[in-house]
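Subject: for your reference before the review

Hello V.,

The reviewers asked for a structural picture of the protein, and I figured it would be easier to keep everything in one thread rather than splitting it across files. Below is the amino acid sequence we used in the manuscript, unchanged from the supplementary table.
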Amino acid sequence: MPSPEIILTIVKVALMIGGLMTAAAYFVLLERRVAAWTQDRIGPNRVGMPLTNWRLWGLGQPLADGVKFITKEEYTPAHVDKPLFILAPISILVAALAVFAAVPVGSYLPVPESWGLGDKVDLVVAPHMDVGMLYVFALSSVAVYGVVLGGWASNNKYSFIGGLRSSAQLVAYELPLGLGILGVVLAAGSLDLEEIIRAQVRDGVWYAFAQPLGFIVFGVAAFAEAGRLPFDLPECEQELVGGYHTEYSSLKLLLFLVAEFLHMILASFLIVILFFGGWSLPFGLTGAADAEQLSLAMGIFRLLVMSGKVFLVIVFFMLARWSWPRFRYDQLMALALKVMLPLGILNLVSLAVFYELRANITGGGGWGYEMLQLLACWVVCGAAWLAVAYARPLVADNRPRRDINSYRIDSQV
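And here is what came back from the structure prediction:
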């Protein structure tokens, strides 16, 4: 007979996978409705209960899309590298799911001691992971291998260019993403995602307000790492048909699309956990950070608060996708290396100076130093963005280059 801890872990994994897959399906429906609202049209609202006339606001659409993907022909082109072609979507989906093992979806729920689980159950698959942030960062970086494998194994020029674009984009934006994370780690003094939430509760201020420059850098880099508009250069349909998944169809294409939505959900969780206090609310409405005992109602309330914050961030992702045009590729890379990277370094250095000064002040600086540091962080953020705005040209020259012979380039390609 398995121990209660093993049974609990299996239940957590099952709930996590089932919840994430269901969420990905219905977020597709939500995004289609958001796109319709943004573009002043109706969107999907016809599909409801099968064999009935109940439309239910189109809530049956994800089920219909899933059946469509499953029943489509499972076709593998003859010119592909078949083992790598099949491995690519599997690897990217497995990495996208495994990373959520260290992501808390709430605080904890009290349980009877007769269950053999102690007095509480943590709402995370792998609780108290001291290197949780490193685990998330490492596994989320594995996604680039799936994309590159898919582009290479397809033996298709569109797919190959999409794979190259993705590898360059993800590697470039991982640098500012890591710098944004380091500022939070420096403030919280821990790599444990649960401890980062508790640190924000104890400090009484969310890191989005205590580190505005780091929040902006991390947010932009998270958009790029998720590979969504305006950063979807690896798969842009106007240029590359579908990029690295051009040759994919049926279930293999579905794995790529689900992994893309999981990356967006992960980015939303990280933004909420690292910069918006996770399950916490201002004025102590969700209880103390290190409360020994929570009521069941408070544990559920913290779960709902966390879910609501993540939902709002996901909606912002969707609104951004349907509101901003796609960057040109040179603009994408210039933004990462010429803007986000210097701003990330500036944010980390300024925070290190502030915390070093705080450590050298008797008594840790007190409340007055906390307010002074907060004001200084906002001054650094404003000055940095003003410097970026004046350093870059006010008008982008998007005219075609007349000095380039397109016929000679095409012949070389």
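For the response letter, the relevant points are probably these. The chain has a mean pLDDT of 85. Residues 75-395 form one domain.

Happy to draft the paragraph if you're swamped.

O.
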